[in-house]
Amino acid sequence: MDAVVMGALSSLMVKLGKVLVGEYNLQKGVKGEIMFLQPELESMQGALQEIANVPPDQVDNQDKIWASEVRELSYDIEDSIDTFMVRCNDDNGEPSDGPHDMKAFIYRTIDLLTSYRIRRKIATDIRGIKRRLIEVRERRQTYKIDGAAVAKPATVDSRLWAHYTKVTELVGIDDTRDELIKFLGEDDDEVPMKEGKIASIVGFGGLGKTALANAVYAKIKAQFDCCGFVSVSQNPDMKKLFKALLSDLTGNDIKEEYGLDDKWLIDELRGFLEEKRYFIIIDDIWDISVWKTIRFAMPDNKCGYRIITTTRVLDVAEQVGGVYQMKPLCPDNSKILLYSRIFGSADKYSNAKCPDEQLVEVSDKILKKCAGVPLAILTIASLLASKGKNKLDWFEVCNSIGVGLENSFDVENMRKILSFSYYDLPSYLRKCLLYLSVFPEDDEIDKDRLIRMWIAEDLIGYEKQGKSLFEVGETYFNELINKSMIQPVYDDYEVVISCHIHDMILDLIRYLSSEQNFVSILYGIDVDRPSPSKKVIRRLCLHNSKEDHVTSETTMSMQQVRSAVVFPAAINLMPELRSFNVLRVLDLQSCYLAEAYSLKYLGSLFHLRYLGLMNTRINHLPEEIGNLKLLQTLDISMNPILWLPTSIVQLRHLTCLILPGNHTNLTSRIGRLTALEELSLLEVKDSGSTGIIEELGNLTRLRVLTMSWTTEMNDSLEKSMVECLNKLRKIQRLGIFTADVECNLVGWVLPPHISKLELCYWFSTLPDWINPSLGHLRLLQIHVRKLWQEDLEILGRLPGLCYLYLWVDHENLGITRRFTVGACSFPSLVECKFWEFGGSTEFRQGAMPRLKDLTFSVLVQDATDLGLGNLQSLQTLGVSLISGGASQEEVEQVKAAVRHAMEVHPSHPALDMY
Question: Which segments constitute the Disease resistance R13L4/SHOC-2-like LRR domain (predicted)?
C-alpha cells in the first residue's frame, strides 16, 4: 500500500505539539481536546504504517476505505491547525506614536475581538474534528479493520517474460548484445584474458536489462566451465538464492539439510568455483549489501570469470563496477518492434515502414512518447492490436499516454513492473515523486522550482545534519535520479539543473496520484477530478483549456486546495484567488496575467508559501503581499516590475527572492529578511548603494547571491562591500556583475564552502584570497588587469576547479608575456578560457589532464611550441590570433601549425580559429 495514505499525519503531529506548548491562549477545554487527539492520531498513524507496508494488491478493501478516510481527515485537521496558528501569529496592529494614542487603542480593541473570534473558531473546529475522529475509530472497530493482509491467489512475477522470451523475438538486441560482449572481453576467438571482468547493466524498469543479460548468456555460456543465472528481487531469501545458484552451477539439486546455512552455501560455492572459469548473472539487485554478500561466494580467481549484474539503482551499479548504461531502442528498431507486434513478424517489417499509410503520423507520435522503451512499446502495441486500423482509436491511445492509459492486462502488467521501483522508494521519496505528476509530459522540470514546491507542501519535513531544507531537498532529488525514476538535465558546467520524467513513469504516478487523491489534473481531454468518495480537491493542476470545461471546473470547490499549478494554455480556467482558503503553492509561471488573470486577492492567501510569477508580464505587486507572513519563495523574474512594495520586508519566512533584474528598486530595509538563503538578480544603484550593501550583511543565511551595480566604486563602498561579504559565511554561489570598474576587495576572507565565484569586474592583480585552500571551488570567473606566472601556478593548484574563465588586460596595456602551464597543474579542469593574454601560453606534458574545451588568445610572433598535443583529453579548441603587426604569411604559418597539431592529436579536436 502506498505511503501517501499517511496524508499529513507526520507534519500534523509536530504542529499539534507546537499548539500545546506555544503561547496560543487556548479557550478552556480546547487544550484537553487536543491532548485527546494526539494519542488517537498516533494510534491511527501506526495502523496506517502497517497498511502501507502491505503489498498494494494484498490490501483489503475495508482497509483502503478506512485509510482514505484517515488521510483526508489528517489534511482537514492540519488545515484547521494551520489557520489557527497563522491567524494567532498575524500581528494586525500598527505602530503608534504613544501609549494613549486613540489609533493604537482602536487597533488593540480590534485585535482583542479578532483574537476572541479566532480562538472560538478553533474550539469549534477541534470539537468537530474530535467527533469525526471518534466516528472513524468506531468504524474501524465495527468492521474489524486491522491492517492485516488478506490471503490472495498466488501472483505471477510480471518480469518473467524477459527470461523466457526467445532471443530471436527481441528486436534490436544483437548490436547491444555484441557491444556488451566486447565490453566483457569475449568478442574474439583469442585466448580469453585470465583476469575476471564484471559488467553492471543499469537503467529503469522496462528498458530490457534482463533480456539483454539473457541474450549475452545464451551467446557465450558455452565458453565457460560452468554458468549460473539467478534473480535477486527486492527482499531476497539469501539461503534460497545461494541454493538456486549452486544448483545452477553444478547441475545438481541441493536438498534441504539440517544445519545448512548461508555460510555453508557460500563455502560450497567458493570451493566449487575456485579453479573454474565461471559465468554468472545476478539479475535485479536493489541493495548494495545484498551484492556484497553474494560477492563473497564468487572467488576472484585467475581463470577469466565473468559476472553480469542488472539493477535499476545507479549507486548499486557504480559500487558493483563496470557500469553499462542501458540505452533505449533506436527509432528504426522501435518501429520494427511496434509494427511486428501489431501486424506480423519482425522479419516482415524489418524495414521499419508502417504497412498502413494513414497510421504513419499517429504511430510516429506514439513511438516518440514511448521513447525507445521496449516494455512501453509492447504494452501500447497490445492496446493498438485490439483497435484494428482505426486511426481515431489510435490517436485516442496516443493522447492517453502519460495521462492515464485505459486499464487492460498489459497496461496493468506494465504498471506493476514499473511500480517495483516506486515501492522500493522510502516513503518520503514517494510523495516527492508523485508531486511531479503536476507537470505536463515532455516538460523540463526545473530542479530549484520543484524543491521549493516540495518544501512549501511540507514534503521535506525538517532540516538534518546541518543541512537546510533546500539542501535536504537536493539530496531527495539526487536520490530519485539514482533510483532511475527521473532523468537529469545538465547545464554547460555539468551541474544538474532540471529533469525529465519518462511518459511511462508519468503514467504510473498519475495513476497512483488519482488513486490516492493526491493530484487532480485538467488534461485538456478530460478532468481527472475526485470521485464522489474522494469529495475534495487537494492539489489542482491545469494544463490545457477547452471551452466546455470552463463551467464545470469553476464550480468545483477550491476551499481545500493546497497547490494550484497552472500552465499558460489553461490560465482562463483558474478560479479567483479569493476562492482558495488554504493554498500553499501558487505557480503561474509563464502565464500572461496582464489580461487574463488578476492578483487582486493575493493578500488573502495567508497560508501561501510558494509564489511563482516568473515571466507573467506583471508590472507591479500589490502592497497586500505583506500579509503573506508564511511565504518562503517569491519568484518575480522576467517581469517589468520597477518598484517593489515596502511591505515586502514583512515576509520574515522568505528564503528565496528572485528579482526581475531590470532596474527594480528595492527597499533599503532588505536586511530584515533574515531568513533569505537565495537572493538573485539584485541591482544596486547610485542612490543608497552603501545602505543596501550594509543591509545585505544582515542576511547571514544566504547561500546564493547574484547582484550587479550601476554605481561608481569608491573607498567607502568597497569597505562596506568587504564588511558585508565577511559576514556571509554560508555563501556557496556568488556572482557580482558591474561596469568597467576596479575593486580589489582587500581583506575579504572567502567562505570555506564557496563552489561558484563569478566576479565580472577588474582586479588590479590576482587577489591573495584566491589560493589552494579553496577546496570546494568548482567554477571561477575573474578579470585581472595584470597576471604573473606565479598567479597562474596558484590557480593551477586549486584542487576542485573544473571551469576557469580568466580575463586579463595585457593586450590593452601593451604587456607581452609568455606563460607556462606546468605538469600536474589544473588536475580537475574541464573547460578553460584565457582571454587577452597579449602573449602566448605553453602547455607542458601532464598539464590539465581532464581538459576538454580550451579557448585562448595568442600573439602570432610568440606562437611557437604551444604544446597543444600534451592536452590528451582535448575535444574542442578555440584560438584567437593576435597579429601584433605580423605579416599575413606569418599568420598563415601559425594557422597551419595549429591545424596540424589538431590533425595529429589522438582525439582530433574540433578547431575554431579566428
Answer: 560-911
